[in-house]
Amino acid sequence: MTAHIIDGKAFAAGLGDRIAEGAAAFADRTGRAPGLAVVLVGSDPASEIYVRSKGLMARKLGMESFEHTLPAETTQDTLMALIAELNANEAVDGILVQLPLPDHLDSLQVIEAIDPAKDVDGLHPLSAGYLASGLPGLVSCTPLGCLMLLKDQLGSLSGLDAIVVGRSILVGKPMAQLLLAENCTVTMAHSRTADLAEKVGKADIVVAAVGRAEMIKGDWIKDGATVIDVGTSRVIRDGQKYLVGDVDFAAASEKARAITPVPGGVGPMTIMTLMHNTLIAAYRRKNYPVPELGA
Ligand SMILES: NC(=O)C1=CN([C@@H]2O[C@H](COP(=O)(O)OP(=O)(O)OC[C@H]3O[C@@H](n4cnc5c(N)ncnc54)[C@H](OP(=O)(O)O)[C@@H]3O)[C@@H](O)[C@H]2O)C=CC1
Ligand SMILES: Nc1nc(=O)c2c([nH]1)NC[C@@H]1CN(c3ccc(C(=O)N[C@@H](CCC(=O)O)C(=O)O)cc3)C=[N+]21
Question: Which intervals hold domain Tetrahydrofolate dehydrogenase/cyclohydrolase catalytic (predicted)?
């Protein structure tokens, strides 16, 4: 089987059109655009690129973007004061603190300080708890984007065997919860998992979120499986720079029914689901019914 290549960029663009309509309707009704605040501490070049693209996308869709770039030596107190200010700011509907923070900062304390109603990254322990309890809350952007792509490919996921490789708070854990809520039978794999290849080989759905270039080999994949590759690693081959996923894309494409490429798969969806979450947060904070975004 030669896999269908899932076009995350195109799917994200379609979702973006509906988000822009929702943002315009919100602005008509309230006199202000939905607002997203992104906080970056320090100057990691990759993070700067993501933060800039989030700001650009917010403006493109008719939202307001508040960008706060703080020096690497920012103190915990300064960062906590900024979060308090953003929580209190009526024009801010969503707050994202780009991770990882410099080592001297306590990320959990920062995340716990974010108003859960504005937690568009779904990182607050309350957001994680809502998700695990099946209650409405904000869901981490990357897993939400992966789920949208999976449902678009497969329709119902009920009864399928899924494996999530990686168990981070940002990606692996919420991904597993979303798949469980869709009635998949979910295996969560991590660095201590025994016989990973064999476990991957039983799955109808493989979500890889590890961050190790091409660690999942093509011949591990079950014939006809759907493969979602979250990982992004920068590698240099023959003097050329490449961004590659956690899955050996060429070999896995021979086995899978559908697979996401890197770049152009999950990455563009992460940015768009952040916009989706910001729009939802804006409507919910006003107690307005959330518009149908068709995803
Ligand atoms: N495209 C996108 O939109 C996004 C991409 N990413 C990318 O996804 C990747 C994962 O991100 P994130 O979840 O934050 O990463 P983390 O580093 O927080 O987590 C990595 C996970 O992979 C597990 N792991 C490490 N080595 C192995 C191994 N040999 N076999 C199986 N599991 C292993 C770890 O296990 P253990 O818990 O045991 O240590 C851990 O649970 C990164 O490449 C990141 O850049 C992340 C967010 C968004
Ligand atoms: N609080 C927090 N929330 C995050 O969601 C978060 C974070 N911290 N820290 C870092 C990771 C990483 N991440 C990506 C977002 C977009 C692309 C993306 O758009 N990638 C493009 C390629 C971009 C390129 O070429 O570099 C693609 O895959 O097509 C990738 C990775 C969000 N993260």
Answer: 6-121
> Measured between alpha carbons, how far is residue 218 from residues 148, 162, 248 in Å?
24, 17, 6
Active site residue 98: yes
Quick: pLDDT tens for 196-210: 999 999 999 999 999
Instruction: Calculate how far, in angstroms, residue 117's C-alpha sits from the geometric centre of ligand 1.
Output: 26
Going by CA atoms, what residue is nearest to atom 24 of ligand 1? 191
pLDDT band at 295 (very low <50, low <70, confident <90, very high): low
Radius of gyration of the chain (CA): 19
Alpha helices in 134-285 (DSSP H): 141-154, 172-181, 196-200, 249-253, 266-285
Catalytic residue among 119, 121, 229, 248: 121
ipTM of this complex: 0.98
> Which residues, other chains included, contact 215 with Cβ-Cβ below 8 Å and sequence gap of 6+?
208, 246
| H/E stretch holding 86 | helix 76-88
For 229, the enclosing helix (H) or strand (E) is strand 226-229
Is 168 labelled a binding residue?
yes
- What tokens were used for 144? 């939400």
Tell me which residue of 144, 195, 139 sits closest to 165, measured CA to CA. Answer: 195
Beta strand extents in 6-63 (DSSP E only): 35-41
- pTM for the whole structure: 0.97
Domains annotated on the chain, with CATH: 30-128+269-285 (3.40.50.10860), 141-268 (3.40.50.720)
